[in-house]
């Protein structure tokens, strides 16, 4: 399968490498600085699931150099999405499907409007990964799960080919054709609580849950997000909210969100894309989300966009 990875950061580098190792033809579509780094250092993955090195990853900076794209894996941050639209238009005109794995929800309708509904296959991932100073991927979680699912019949074939490709890796991959919107909302619910609280207090999850008054804020965000999903026709059940709480309670005490890791590194944050997006969606439905409002206000100064 010809896969273009747009956004060779933590997720793009990780999943792109796994698919490449399994035999896919993977091209990293990157900007100049990252291209130089990848040409100089190659791309390595350090992971408890197995290290991987490609000394000469296939790197391009010009979309026109990509001839037969079948699938574009979009793994940029929310604040960079708009800059990718022109490239994505060129690639979809050449026949590619687009699989975004950004956290959040707002990018899905944006991509559907720009590229057409049939081009966009929603996806998400559960993994903890980051880039080191040399641009190599550090995978720090025991999980590396990717979920995707078709919204149109025409996407069925590419989704099952991707499922087969993932089957040749040890990724945990779910082709969730009948419930992908539910999966997206469930993750959005979890991430707004987890990234919100860890980023706001600048602490990993351990000290957050040692303080019930602090942990309660995360719990309340879960409930607000559950209500919001309901307004958009997706049921995140009470049991699923309890499972999200349980996950927060069971994570390694040092575990933290990618947003909090970015705050620690003084990198830009997806505050507007994640929490800001949920607040806009709530406003459109006329519902109050006071805990989201408060956490959004607290993390906004660290956004740096
Ligand atoms: N990291 C994690 O553990 C997880 C992240 N996520 C989500 O996945 C998404 C991606 O996160 P992550 O992989 O951490 O992000 P990273 O910041 O590590 O990677 C994003 C990459 O996108 C590149 N990029 C931005 N704009 C363009 C462009 N126009 N053309 C080509 N490349 C571009 C950046 O390159 P450049 O160097 O040029 O800026 C950067 O390398 C986010 O929405 C995040 O919330 C979800 C689950 C876990
Ligand atoms: C919660 C987690 C680590 C799961 O993948 C995540 O998506 C993030 O921190 O951005």
TrEMBL record:
Keywords in alphabetical order: NADP, Oxidoreductase, Pantothenate biosynthesis
Every Ketopantoate reductase C-terminal domain range: 180-301
Keyword Ribosomal protein: no
EC class of the enzyme, as a word: oxidoreductase
Catalysed reactions, semicolon-separated: (R)-pantoate + NADP(+) = 2-dehydropantoate + NADPH + H(+)
SUPFAM superfamilies cross-referenced by the UniProt entry: 6-phosphogluconate dehydrogenase C-terminal domain-like, NAD(P)-binding Rossmann-fold domains
Pfam assignment, any one: ApbA_C
Keyword Calcium: no
Pathway(s) of this molecule: Cofactor biosynthesis; (R)-pantothenate biosynthesis; (R)-pantoate from 3-methyl-2-oxobutanoate: step 2/2
EC number: 1.1.1.169
Domain Ketopantoate reductase N-terminal: 3-150
Job description of the protein: Catalyzes the NADPH-dependent reduction of ketopantoate into pantoic acid.
UniProt xrefs under PANTHER family: 2-DEHYDROPANTOATE 2-REDUCTASE (PTHR21708:SF26), PROBABLE 2-DEHYDROPANTOATE 2-REDUCTASE (PTHR21708)
Family: Belongs to the ketopantoate reductase family.
Name of the protein: 2-dehydropantoate 2-reductase
Origin species: Virgibacillus siamensis
């Amino acid at each position: 399968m010809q896969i273009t990875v747009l956004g060779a950061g933590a997720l793009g580098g990780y999943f792109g490498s796994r698919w490449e190792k399994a035999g896919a033809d993977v091209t990293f579509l990157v900007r100049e600085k990252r291209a130089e780094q990848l040409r100089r250092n190659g791309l390595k993955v350090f992971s408890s699931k197995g290290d991987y090195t490609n000394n000469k990853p296939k790197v391009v900076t010009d979309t026109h150099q990509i001839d037969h794209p079948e699938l574009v894996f979009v793994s940029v941050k929310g604040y960079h999405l708009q800059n990718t639209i022109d490239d994505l238009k060129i690639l979809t005109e050449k026949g590619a499907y687009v699989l975004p794995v950004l956290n959040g929800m707002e990018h899905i309708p944006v991509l559907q409007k720009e590229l057409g509904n049939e081009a966009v296959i929603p996806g998400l991932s559960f993994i903890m990964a980051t880039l080191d100073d040399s641009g190599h991927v550090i995978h720090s979680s025991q999980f590396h799960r990717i979920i995707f699912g078709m919204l149109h019949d025409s996407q069925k074939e590419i989704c099952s080919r991707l499922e087969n490709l993932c089957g040749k890796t040890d990724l945990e991959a779910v082709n969730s054709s009948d419930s992908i919107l539910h999966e997206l909302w469930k993750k959005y619910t979890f991430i707004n609580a987890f990234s919100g609280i860890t980023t706001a207090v600048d602490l990993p999850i351990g000290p957050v849950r040692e303080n019930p008054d602090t942990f309660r804020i995360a719990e309340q965000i879960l409930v607000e997000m559950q209500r919001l999903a309901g307004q958009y026709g997706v049921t995140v059940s009470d049991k699923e909210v309890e499972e999200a709480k349980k996950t927060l309670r069971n994570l390694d005490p040092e575990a933290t969100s990618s947003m909090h890791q970015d705050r620690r590194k003084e990198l830009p944050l997806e505050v507007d894309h994640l929490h800001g997006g949920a607040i806009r969606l709530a406003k459109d439905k006329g519902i109050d989300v006071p805990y989201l409002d408060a956490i959004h206000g607290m993390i906004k100064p660290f956004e740096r966009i």
